[in-house]
Amino acid sequence: MDEEKTTSTPTPFEESVIKILDLVSTTDELRIIGALIPATIIHYNHDHIIEKWRRKVQELSWPHDDSGVVEYLLNEKKTIEEGSSDLAKEILSLTG
Predict the structure, then answer these.
(1) From CA 37, how far away is CA 68, in angstroms rounded?
(2) Superkingdom of the source (predicted)?
(3) pLDDT band at 83 (very low <50, low <70, confident <90, very high)
């Protein structure tokens, strides 16, 4: 991954992982991110992260994506959508 210094304000993982995926340049780097995503609770941006993930898998010609990232994100999204808590409803209202 190309090192890039940033002076910006820290952002939630759901936003920063999208930027990080843009910086990934090898399948080894992608595997590292792929291990991190399922170890993290993702509250929103599921579809955008899936889109970026799939695009990067294709770009790097990863022949068999066995990471489980897409499945994990779809499950997290479903959990949020089915949640009856006020937090779940608030998250859904923010993400559409």
Answers:
(1) 10
(2) Bacteria
(3) confident
